């Protein structure tokens, strides 16, 4: 349904990608921003505006609607926050005693809402009490929500569902002064099921708002939102091609392997430190998270889990600690993937969907439980600001090529290099190893072919990554020992224990952590669950298992995670044995005395 405006038509000012170049003379000072905002920008260490900031901020300050498309990590958040803050500061100067909500920022996930609120507070750090920002996406009671809205905060950041609830509770008094609306990650908002909420919000908000639609793609969903909210928007296409290009600095590789070999390669990659830096491992099920975590635990490899079952506060803290470098490995599910616009209709959507149960066709009863348990507003592959990720490892492939692009967009950000590695199970090997088999991997080859075609259209190449399986096979018996310990019962107990621990830390101790922030620093999410039987001997890699030329001999491919492979010298024990053997041979020491005996025969 298209929203009606007095001067609404389909005309749009389009800034072509060819003209989108950054002028070296553009600075934050030259954009005409308030001095207090410039202080906040300087404190954050932003030297010069990015392309999207340099192009969008002047247009926003002129009052134009903007539909901006730029890749993840390009500075879209600051591009819309700075004009909003500038507008609020001007309004406060004109009416110092007036408290009114002037802007709504709609985001698809609670994690992104928290992230936007923190960025807004950092940019407004020198504005004192002139700007009040509220995160309306939190799970709080109706009384707390009324209290949050009672003083009419200047900016409300929320998911569409929460924003509609606030508008309902706050009534006309909350929205009558609203002049700005931002929809961040606009291409995801509708796919997360917020269509009805957005329709209701469009009817409740005043007409003639200045609207910002920020997105990494220009999809049909974005076109729908443009018709619903915008008036002749300036469209900024800040990159070439028709699809998103979040993988500019990503080296992409694919590894064909059997189902159990996925676990074998994970053991080898992390235990021998083939990846240097932080890594996000995407899996297809929540149970799969715990299977892999318990498996790595057997070898003393620490990791933390991120999925929609965990409380919001825990998820936010995990991401924050990961960005600080506290954790190196996150095992994540991505239940709300970007589905649609796929060319290959031979693969049923049901088969492509990532099943969050134990495998097989879920019953209606399980579906109901799943809806009650999982957080619909959770999302990992888009929206969350993971920093300095060296490698994205697709332990299980995503359902669609778009989801793949969004996943690998977590690495190679802000001009840095990164690597994406995907495990693919050939159809002939699917179902051969029952304990590690899941239904969604049956179509790996077809999905990978579609992903490859999608990347090829964008000029990207996915290369095969070759491991020397003869060298890797020497670690197989240790992998099998570890997998035998990770039973379904162990996974179920670990899942229950983890959720119980996180709920305790997230809810009951929330006030304690607010009063004692130092205690929060010691809260870790990568501790051992110990639901599986721990075998201490697996924590150490015997020297005799190591290749003669060190860990570099295991792989014939390039560096992993943008870092050189660990190169060690020859095996010290083998080298010492050979040296001793040569010494014994030369000196005669250590020889068998019976063989050394020389006797004379009687004539």
UniProtKB/TrEMBL annotation:
Q: Which residues form the Helicase C-terminal domain?
A: 249-470
The record lists the membrane-crossing segments as: none
Using the UniProt record, name the top-level EC class of this enzyme in a single word.
hydrolase
Subcellular location(s) of the protein = Nucleus
Q: Where is the composition biased (Basic residues)?
A: 574-588
Q: Which Pfam families match?
A: DEAD, Helicase_C
| Superkingdom of the organism of origin | Eukaryota
Question: Which GO MF term does the entry hold, naming one?
Answer: RNA helicase activity
Which keywords does UniProt give here? ATP-binding, Helicase, Hydrolase, Nucleotide-binding, Nucleus, Ribosome biogenesis, RNA-binding
> What does the function comment of this entry state?
ATP-binding RNA helicase involved in the biogenesis of 60S ribosomal subunits and is required for the normal formation of 25S and 5.8S rRNAs.
Per the record, the similarity remark reads:
Belongs to the DEAD box helicase family. DDX56/DBP9 subfamily.
User: PANTHER family under this entry?
Assistant: ATP-DEPENDENT RNA HELICASE RHLE-RELATED, DEAD-BOX HELICASE 56
Please state what the protein is called.
Answer: RNA helicase
